Amino acid sequence: MATNNSRPSKAERTASAREKAAQMRAAQEAAAKRKSLFVKLGVLGAVILVIALVVTLIVQNNDTKVADAGAVPAGGNAAGGILVTSPTTVADKTVENVDITKLQTPSEVPAKPEMRDLTVGKKGEPVNITMVVDANCVHCADFEATYGKQINDWLAAGDVTVEYRNVGYLDGGSATNFSSRAANALACVANDTPKAYMPFVTALWGHYQQGEMKNAQLAEMAIVNGASKDVTSCIDKGEFRSFVQYTTQVAKYDGVAGTPTIVVQGKVVDLASQDFPTTVEAAIKANKK
């Protein structure tokens, strides 16, 4: 009886093995592509999540509610300035409280700074320098690095008084409102230990290249430069944040478009065309005649 041999030939078995191997490779390649896609989507999702968190953090911090009214630090005035009268002293404050809701909105903001309540030293008195500055401003840091020692020398000689109007112009670019927090720290130091104010000014802007600081770091810097440990609570609580908010709004209403804006004896100094020390020395000489 004849039998029917149905076993595949060697050639057929080889072809079948090749086909299965090709199918396996195709399946592996497809799986690898799916895995790569999932990884890319995962990374993209993580990046999007991080961006969303950063944006949320910035919005939340910059939307921090600050009271409309608040206390004024030692040396403070109705324009939001802190008047330094020597390397170790500040003036008596001229008001006890400020309220941003009581500021009159100008019908039109001046194109050039027209700053209110500027101090002008009379004959025989120290020349006044008023500065609108932001702790997060690179140009302010450069100004302090260039002229800080000279300003302290003028103060020590009794030749000038210096009014600092510390603003929070650059909070919009900070996730932690550093400009306003640092300005609050400056007010805290002036109120707590006036003799530490100028050393803290030097240290604060001298730290610019190292980036923003937390409140604890600001407090540590203040204490290292002579403030008492009590300054820590003031900085943490933002005791003078309302004052800073007020100072910032006053500067905007007065047409101060950028920092630093420097005024000597009531006149804005054009730092691009005027030499700052020469301008101050001329004013000092004129007041001594």
Description:
There is one protein chain. With 289 residues, the protein is an alpha+beta fold. The chain folds into two domains: 11-63; 69-288, Glutaredoxin (3-Layer(aba) Sandwich). It has eight helices and eight strands; from the N terminus they run αβββββαβαααααββα. Strands 3-2-6-5-7-8 form a six-stranded mixed β-sheet, sandwiched between helices. A two-stranded antiparallel ribbon has the order 1-4.
For the termini, the CA-CA separation is 141 Å
Using only C-alpha atoms, the radius of gyration works out to 32 Å
Shape summary: elongated
Overall pLDDT metric: 88
User: Which secondary-structure class do the elements indicate?
Assistant: alpha+beta
Number of folding domains? 2
Question: SSE order, as H and E?
Answer: HEEEEEHEHHHHHEEH
What is the level 1 CATH name of the largest domain?
A: Alpha Beta
CATH topology of the largest domain: Glutaredoxin
Q: Just name the CATH architecture of the largest domain.
A: 3-Layer(aba) Sandwich
Organism: Glutamicibacter uratoxydans (Arthrobacter uratoxydans)
Keywords: Membrane, Transmembrane, Transmembrane helix
Protein name: Thioredoxin-like fold domain-containing protein
Transmembrane segments: 37-59
